[in-house]
Amino acid sequence: MKFVYPAFLWALLALAIPVIIHLFNFRKYKTLYFSSLKFIQYVDQQTRSTQKLKHLLVLLARLFALTSLIFAFAQPFTPLKNNANGGGKPLMAIYIDNSFSMSAKGTEGELLSEAIEMARKLIKKVPIETRILLNTNKMDGVEQRLLTKVAALQELDKITPTAIVRKLDDVINWQKEFIENQHLTIQRIGIRQFIFLSDFQKQSAHFSNLKNDNTNYYYPIALRPQKTSNCFIDSVWFESPIRKINENNTLFIRIGNSGNEALQNIELHCVVDRSKRDVFIAIPANGKVTTSINYSDLSSGFKKGKITLNDAQLFWDDDFYFSYSINETMHVLIVNGENASPTVERVFNVEPFYKTSQINQSACTLDAIKKADLIVLNGLNEIPSGFSENLTSFSKSGGTLAFFPGEKINKAEWNSCLKKLNLPVLGTLNNGGTKIKKLFYEDPFFKGMFEKEKETLNFPAISNYYQVNSAGSALKLIQLQNSSPLFLRSSGMQQSFLFTSCLTPNFGTFTTNALYPSILLRIAEMSQRKSPNNLIIGKDASFPVFSTYNSSEPIHLVKDKIDLIPSIKDNGFNFDVSINGLQALELLDAGNYVLKNDKNLGYLSLNYDRSESQTSCLTVPEIKIGLKNQGIEHIITSEITNGQSNTTIELEKPYEYWKLFIILALLFLVTEILLLKLWKN
C-alpha cells in the first residue's frame, strides 16, 4: 500500500490526545457521604467492570474514527502492477491530434470533436487529485503545465484545428521530459498514464525515437472516419520560369486521389489575375493526374492566382494559392576585363527590356552589384578575393552570374570563385582547335529556343578553350567534339553559367554565330530574380523579397482581417520575411497576402502542408507492434469507429482506499455516539 499524501500520517501523533484525556478523566473522584458504606461498596463492585469496558470501547471508537479520518486524507492506494513511480499524485497525459486530417467526418461529427468528447469522458472519471497534462500539436509553453480536472475540462473547449503536424514519438518524448522534470523539481508524480487520441496517419505515427518503458501505461485510441478517400491539389508550377507580357503561360496542376475508386468530372476552377478557367478531369484510384491551363498576362506588376477543387471529404487541401511578378525591365551589369568583347553589350541592347550598364572590373562596387539581376563577367583574367566574396553573396541572394574568361586567367583566383558557386574548375588552355558537337536540348535552358532539335546545325569553330576534367554537379549545355564542355550551368538553387572559352576572335568564331546572341538572351531571361510562387506553412521559414524598403516603416502581411508584422532579415542584396515560429503558424492561414509598408512590395502566397492528404492510417495492430518494438510493455489499444458515445474505454486504475476509510470513520463515530447514548451505567 502507498499513499498519495504520506505527510498526513504525521497526524497519527494526535491519537495521544484522546488517550491522555481519557486517562485524566478516570482519575476524577467525587466524594459522597453516607451513614453506611456497605451499599456503595456493593454497587461499585457490580458496575466497575462494566464502566471500564464502556470507557474502553468509547476510547477505541474515537481512536479508530480519528485514525480512519487521517488515513482517508493520506489517500492510500494499491499501485498498478510494475509501477515504479508510487508515492506521488497520479498523472494522466492526454494528447489530442488536432492536425487537419482530424477534420474528416466521423460517425458523430468531425474526428477532432469526437476526440475532445472522448477526452472529456476520460477526465471526468479520474480521481479528483489526478494531475492532467493536456496537449495538442502546439506543444508550447501554455500547454506545458499540469492541470486539475476542472481546468483540463475548460481547456478542452479551446482546442481548434491547426496546420502543425507532429510525429508521435516527438509528442511522447516531449511529455515524458516535462513530467520527469516536474517529478524531480516541483512535485512527486506517481502513476503515469499516456493517452493518445489520433487517426494515426502513417506519415506522422513514428515510434523510432522512443525508449524502453516497462512502468507507464499507454492508451492509443484510434479514431476512424466514415470515408478514407480524399481528393486534393498536390502542387502547382509553371512550365517555364520566364514570364513576359502578352506571352503564353502554361500552368500545370497536379491533383491526387487517395481513394480506392476512380473519380470522374472533377471540377477545377482557376483564377489568375483577371483570367478564369474551368477544367474537368478524371483521376484514377490511388493515383495522381496532371492537367494544364494556358493564359497570357496583359500587363506588368504583381499577379496572384488561386486553384479550387470541389471535394466532399477534407477541405484544407482543396485550394492552392500562388503569385508572381512580371517586371517592366531587368538590370544587366557587364563587368569588363582585359579581354572584354563589345558584342555582349550589343546583344542586350537589342531588347529594350534589358537595362544594361557597363563597368570596368577595377571600378565595380558593391552598390553597382546590388542593383543588378544578372552580372556578366566579360573577359576577366583576375578575380580578387574581395570581388569573389561579393559575387558569391550576390549569387546566394538569387542573382545570376555568367562567366566568360579572359585569354590568360589567374587559375587560382578563378577556380576559388568557381568552387564556391558549384561550377567546375578550369584547367590548362587547349589550343588544338575543335567544333561544337552537341547541344543538350533536354535541358530547360534550351526549351522553346529552337523550332526543331537538329543535330546538323552550322556550329561555330572554337580555336582555344580551357580544359575541364570533370563537370561535377554542373550541367552540360554545349559539348565540343572531344566531349569537353564548352558551356555549363550550376545545379541547385544558386544559378550561374560558365563558358570555357574567351569571346575574343583569337579564341574562335562563336560570337559571329546566331547561337551566341540566343544563349546570352536566354541567360538573361532565366536571370530575373524571383520570389517563390508559394510557400508551405510550417515547412518554409522565410520569403525573399528583391526590393529596397524603408527600414523605418514596418512591413505588414495583410489578408482580410489578418495583419501581421513579421520579422525581417536584411541580407545586403535582398531581405527575408520570416514566416517561421509558432506565432506565424497560429496567426497565418492559407491565402494570398499583400506584402507592404509605405508601398506594395508584392504578394506572398501560403498553402497548407499536403503531407496528410494521402489519408493512410496505421491499423490498431500496427500501432501496438510499433510501440512493442520500442520496448513499451503496457499498451491497451482502442478504436472508435461508431462514434465516441458508443465507445467505452476503461483505464487501468489503482485500487484506492480513501472512500473506505471515510466510511469506517463515520461508522466508528456512530458507534461512539451509540455507546454514550444507549449504554446506561
Account of the 3D structure:
The protein is an alpha/beta fold. It folds into 4 domains: 2-79 and 659-678, no CATH class; 89-226 and 615-647, Rossmann fold (3-Layer(aba) Sandwich), CATH 3.40.50; 231-327 and 531-607, Immunoglobulins (Immunoglobulin-like, Sandwich); 330-525, Class I glutamine amidotransferase (GATase) domain (Rossmann fold, 3-Layer(aba) Sandwich), CATH 3.40.50. The strands form 9 sheets. The protein has a 9-stranded mixed β-sheet, with helices on both faces. Strands 3, 6, 7, 8, 35 and 36 form a 6-stranded parallel β-sheet that branches. Strands 27-34-33-29-30 form a 5-stranded mixed β-sheet, with no helix packed on it. Strand 31 (568-570) and strand 32 (575-578) form a beta hairpin. Helix 2 packs antiparallel against helix 13.
- Radius of gyration based on Cα positions: 40 Å
Number of helices, counting only DSSP H or I runs of 4 residues or more: 13
What are the low-pLDDT stretches, counting only 5+ consecutive residues below 50? none
Class by alpha and beta content: alpha/beta
- Give the termini separation: 42 Å
Strand order of the largest sheet: 17-16-18-19-26-25-24-21-22
| Overall spatial form | elongated
CATH architecture of the largest domain: 3-Layer(aba) Sandwich
| Main sheet: strands, sense, barrel | 9 strands, mixed
Mean pLDDT: 86
Q: Percent of residues in beta strands? A: 25-35%
Question: What would CATH call the homologous superfamily of the largest domain?
Answer: Class I glutamine amidotransferase (GATase) domain
What helical percentage do the residues reach? Answer: 10-25%
DSSP strand tally? 37
CATH class (first level) name of the largest domain = Alpha Beta
